[in-house]
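CHAIN AND CONFORMATION:

***
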Amino acid sequence: MLTRIVNLLKGQVTGRVESGFPERVLNLCAEYGIAFWDLRWESPVAFSFTLTRRDWKRLRKLSKKIDCELTAQGWKGAPFFLGRIRRRYALWGTLFVCLALLVCGSFFIWDFEIEGNETVSDQEILRALEKYGVAFGTFGYDVDSFDLRNYMLLEVPELSYIAVNVRGCRAYVQVRERVEAPEIISKRQPGNTVAAKDALITAVEPWEGEKQVLPGTTVRAGQLLIAGVVENDFAGARYTRGMGEVYGRTWYELRCRVPLSLQKKRYTGAREVRRAFLIGKKRVNLYIGSSISGDTCDKIVAREKWTLPGNIALPVDMITEELRPYTLEEGRRSEAEALRLADLVLTRRLAAELGEDGEVLDRTLTYERAGEDLIVTLSAECGEQIGQFVEIPKE
């Protein structure tokens, strides 16, 4: 493959030799080190072969010493291509202008690459950068990294670090999000730990204070679990922070109503593909009409950024929109489908109620028919931390 590319860069000629003694030409090539390939005999006195442009010129001079006829049948490679276009001044001028635009455009920012953010969205970071003055088409050498970092940390308080490095026409934005400091607990403020919900206690782990319940006890929401007021015979009542963790078994019963009748999409089979260019912030449609589709039409949008070899970004995006019209028709949902949908919804609600530390020990899903609806009930037994600290108001 590499040899073929080198030969194309040098230029190669497909020639034909006709002679009463064609072997003399082959002996001549061997004597003077002229390499050839793709040898094909056409007759006992004629054959064709391929060799480089330089060797073809040498062979033509050397062949004058022998009785043979050399004919060039084809030319291929860079020298011949450049020779054909050497007088096309408009083409060279256009190429020069494109190269000049490419060189000048490499000093401007045409693409952003953001990494390190999880909760802060890319759009929020880009809006803050644009507000500062770093946006699509900004001159790369005008970016003051130190001043930009100070501005961004004030504009987006969720960030603790940001660095903008401009390399060519792409700006690499590296951010680190701020880790919220834990809540400072004042040990001087007394309080109690009470039950956040009804539960059957399974474990009590007091950090400070005196526990008021034992495992196996059933408690109601708001009931005292760990007291912050401790009494003894010597010092009397002593106020502390009655803190700790109390684990218990809880029960939930969640319901949702799922309609069995629904409207389904029925695609007509028609399909329309529209394309547009996004040059900078200017959209150029390659079709006639508005880009707004109807209410009963799905639009699938694909966006492709154009780049040059070497991952050099261009300020051009190709937008492809596929329109698939449909009609709405009445349909019905089976009970199995309704149960799966209700199970998904109720499971998410249960997870929101439990939080990260809770776990589901047992669950049961039941349903009943109510006209055109299905009423689904999720009964779950869970284990979770139910202790909630409540401060004792100062008198």
